[in-house]
Write a structure and sequence with these properties.
Elements: H1 13-17, H2 20-29, E1 57-61, E2 64-68, E3 77-81, E4 84-88, H3 99-110, H4 119-125
Antiparallel strand pairs: 1-2, 2-3, 3-4
Helix pairs in contact: 2-4
Length: 126
Amino acid sequence: MNTIRWGIIGCGRFPDIGSHALDLIDFLLGPIVEAQGMGANRSGMFVFNTYIDDDRTTIHCEKGDLIYSVLGLTQPIVTRTKQGVESIAGDSPPAHVAQPLIQTVVDEFLGIGTCPSTGESALRTD
């Protein structure tokens, strides 16, 4: 008897790229030194009527905050310090969103570049 439970997962951007929030934090701040988690079997569905499609990650630092979106690729990156707030416009994602990373892999294989993603960084955030 096959004991593997197959199923259909949700669609959309979150299951596809939501996990890369950890990759981005690892890239911005360096390797995660300690992580804790909790697991439970639960389910839920939330539907909200809103005019805003927004997600934000805020990193509070000693000298200011960094605010960005993982899923809202066109949203600006914001820095907030005692000197004020600076906003950097988000770029439109390429038609194939993974193309820039794939290009760095190809460039490294060709000996003309370096890929920022390694097996080691993948193990830290998987």
